[in-house]
Design brief:
heterodimer, A: about 120 residues, alpha/beta, Glutaredoxin, five-stranded mixed sheet, 5 strands, B: about 300 residues, 6 helices
Chain lengths: ~120, ~300
């Protein structure tokens, strides 16, 4: 039904992480990682979704870009205190570097990524 | 890129303007910083848009409006507008993506955003319990007490919506009666989980890492109390997304763009539609009306040029 779900599987540079593989995929990532905390019921998440897809391509090899469905993965969302979505959290060497809450323009997210890549 | 008409914003007003312009065979581009739909995407259900006798999801209505506009050939470009400059041929629009556009006519339909009150703790705890979108964040507050600040349609409607998740919803309102339409008020009065705090102002959001409470003050006797809430939703009004246009067109004292009844702004060739306009009622139904009128007026303006 929703466009984002249909588009999700197409991009091979965009990772989908879960409570189960978050440590390995994000905290132990060799490159900085950007995680988009989202859910199907969140309209503004659909604003950020396509931007995150584009960034996954543009920063390929420099920043690992991933999505995490907060509905299915409450443990990670809870651990990082996420109580509002969309939230984007940037990780480097297993630590939180910065985060953005709410739907923001692509240029703002790029500023964040350019600091670490 | 050169075109006849550039529309800024793809909410209900911008999409309707695009639809009407495209059907009039005016070359048109709509520039949207996010995805089409505007505030609709942050609305749970829409009960008052004619034609949908069963409530429709905000997101679904947005997608239908977008599909209809695209069906008639409207091009929607995703970019954030940085600068609008009047030039000899019309208006030059530069964007953050480096793509620039030139239009002979321009429709401003960038809408409005929730006002931030700016009380202590509010901005610091945004996304950590402070929210401006109940649809986005409501499910994080299952079995918790939450507060909603405001007394208009959005505030009261979202307070009712939040009862699906929260154990109790405190509606904080500065006056002794609500501004919301009666039908919505009646729903709130009938909802046992909603407690209304009349004549009450929010003073500070409390909490270190996340929201632990809201300090409120009575406007009657100045007494204060702390509500132990884990979430606070602010619905205290709208701020026009007109910051980039205030040198281009006249605005009212709050920054909303002033138009005549044909949606024409003070600058010839510029029109405005939807929530960005200075007007008395901001609804989806009034936005689409504005959009249709603005497209028609722009068409007449463009025909007058050639």
């Amino acid at each position: 039904m929703l466009k984002e779900e249909a588009m999700m599987s197409e991009n091979e540079n965009l990772f989908h992480v879960t409570d189960g593989d978050f440590d390995q995929q994000i905290l132990q990532s060799n490159v900085p990682a950007l995680v988009d905390f989202w859910a199907a019921w969140c309209g503004p998440c659909r604003t950020v979704g396509p931007i995150v897809e584009e960034l996954a391509d543009e920063y390929k090899g420099k920043v690992k870009v991933a999505k995490l469905d907060v509905d299915a993965n409450k443990e990670v969302a809870g651990k990082y205190g996420v109580r509002g979505i969309p939230t984007l959290i940037l990780f480097k060497d297993g630590q939180v570097v910065d985060q953005i809450v709410g739907a923001v323009p692509k240029s703002r997210i790029k500023e964040l990524l350019d600091k670490v890549s | 890129m050169q075109t006849d008409l550039v529309i800024l914003g793809a909410g209900p007003a911008g999409l309707t303007a695009g639809l009407y312009a495209s059907r009039a065979r005016i070359p048109v581009v709509v520039i949207e910083k996010g995805l089409p739909g505007g505030q609709l995407t942050a609305t749970e259900t829409v009960d008052n848009y004619p034609g949908f006798s069963e409530a429709i999801l905000g997101v679904e209505l947005a997608q239908k409006m977008e599909a209809q506009a695209r069906k008639f050939g409207v091009e929607i470009v995703q970019a954030e507008v940085k600068l609008v400059t009047p030039i000899d041929q019309g208006f030059s629009i530069s964007t953050d993506e480096g793509k620039d556009f030139v239009g002979r006519g321009l429709i401003l339909a960038t809408g409005a955003s929730p006002v931030k009150l700016g009380i202590p703790g509010e901005l610091r705890l945004a996304g950590r319990g402070v929210s401006y979108c109940a649809v986005c964040d409501g499910p994080f507050f299952r079995h918790m007490e939450v507060a909603v600040v405001g007394g208009g349609d959005s505030a009261v409607e979202e307070a009712c919506y939040l009862t699906r998740f929260a154990s109790r919803v405190h509606l904080i309102h500065r006056r002794d009666e609500l501004r919301a339409v009666k039908e919505i008020q009646e729903r709130a009065f009938a909802e046992p989980k909603v407690s209304i705090h009349w004549n009450t102002l929010p003073v500070a959001v409390l909490g270190e890492k996340d929201v632990q409470g809201l300090r409120v003050r009575s406007t009657l006797d100045g007494s204060e109390e702390v509500l132990s809430v884990g979430g606070i939703f602010f619905y205290v009004g709208l701020h026009p997304n007109s910051d980039g246009f205030r040198n281009l067109v006249d605005t009212d004292e709050r920054g909303f763009v002033i138009t005549d009844s044909a949606m024409a702004c003070s600058k010839p060739g510029v029109f405005a539609a939807g929530d960005i306009r200075s007007k008395i009622l901001r609804q989806i139904s009034t936005a689409v009306g504005d959009g249709a009128t603005a497209a028609y007026s722009a068409q007449q303006y463009l025909e007058g040029l050639s």
